[in-house]
Write a sequence for this structure.
């Protein structure tokens, strides 16, 4: 006898038939020819038909099993007893009639039918017995037909997408216009810077004025005003931005600085500091890249809004239909 079968028998004897039946089912699933497992399974199943099936399996494996024969005989007696009509006890023999004692004059005799209730004359209504509903199995096997009694959940209609707000359109327009204007301005400044670095001439200029503009955050921006002479013509320039504070302080202290200008257009000039041209060119290129990103972002946002409006609008043939 296996350890699992012994454990199942111990559980059944202790009253835990549910876990014992579970272990027996695992044993029979692994070894359908286990005679003892079928015999103990017949003692824990719920119905007589299941018990009969288990005992028949025992006899199929061992026709000489006396316990299985005894169990089947008891099942047959139980079935025969339930189908036989109930027996009534025999009535005692009728006794000879005896003469009633004479009635006394003080108590008159009451009729025998005085205590018997009279029949009403209408038979009691018969109740129709409805068949009990069959219990539904909780286990659903593969291949079973779908359950049509379950409530069908209706699909909710898809809600139409919301229209973009006016704020979104304004943001897209500002990004496009601002990015395009900044890109154009910085591209022009970059072109001038490249022309100055490739074709510009250097000359001395006299500082005429200088100032410092401070921001609310505590920062400061430095500017210079200066004059220089080209071919006998005095060129004046004001509010020229100086990136380096050291160079600005040196120009203010010396009251002079070097200026780079285009020979054909002296008005296109800027302060010249040796070693700073690469940094100035890099700043211009960085500004061009930033404004290009702003312009592209606004352009993509505008195209997305226009495509959304095109998808929401119905086709031309469906505008008049409902």
């Amino acid at each position: 006898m296996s350890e699992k079968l012994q454990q199942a028998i111990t559980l059944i004897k202790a009253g835990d038939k549910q876990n014992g039946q579970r272990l027996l089912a695992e044993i029979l699933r692994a070894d359908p020819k286990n005679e003892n497992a079928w015999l103990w399974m017949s003692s824990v199943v719920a119905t007589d038909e299941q018990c009969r099936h288990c005992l028949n399996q025992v006899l199929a494996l061992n026709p000489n099993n006396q316990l299985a024969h005894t169990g089947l005989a008891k099942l047959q007696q139980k079935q025969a007893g339930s189908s036989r009509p109930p027996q009534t006890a025999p009535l005692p023999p009728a006794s000879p009639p005896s003469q009633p004692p004479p009635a006394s004059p003080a108590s008159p005799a009451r009729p025998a039918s005085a205590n018997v209730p009279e029949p009403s004359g209408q038979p009691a209504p018969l109740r129709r017995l409805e068949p009990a509903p069959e219990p539904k199995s909780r286990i659903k096997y593969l291949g079973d037909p779908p359950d049509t009694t379950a409530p069908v959940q209706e699909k909710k209609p898809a809600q139409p997408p919301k229209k973009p707000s006016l704020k979104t359109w304004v943001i897209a327009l500002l990004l496009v216009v601002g990015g395009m204007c900044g890109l154009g301005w910085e591209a022009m400044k970059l072109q001038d810077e490249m022309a100055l670095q490739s074709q510009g001439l250097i000359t001395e200029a006299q500082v005429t004025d200088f100032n410092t503009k401070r921001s609310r955050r505590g920062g400061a921006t430095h500017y210079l005003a200066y004059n220089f002479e080209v071919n006998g013509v005095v060129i004046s320039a004001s509010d020229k931005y100086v990136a380096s504070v050291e160079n600005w302080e040196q120009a203010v202290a010396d009251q002079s600085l070097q200026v780079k200008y285009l020979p054909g257009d002296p008005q296109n000039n800027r302060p010249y500091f040796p070693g700073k041209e690469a940094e100035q060119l890099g700043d211009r290129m960085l500004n061009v890249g930033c404004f290009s990103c702003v312009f592209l972002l606004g352009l993509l946002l505008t195209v997305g809004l226009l495509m959304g409006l095109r998808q929401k609008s119905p086709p031309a043939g469906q505008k008049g239909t409902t």
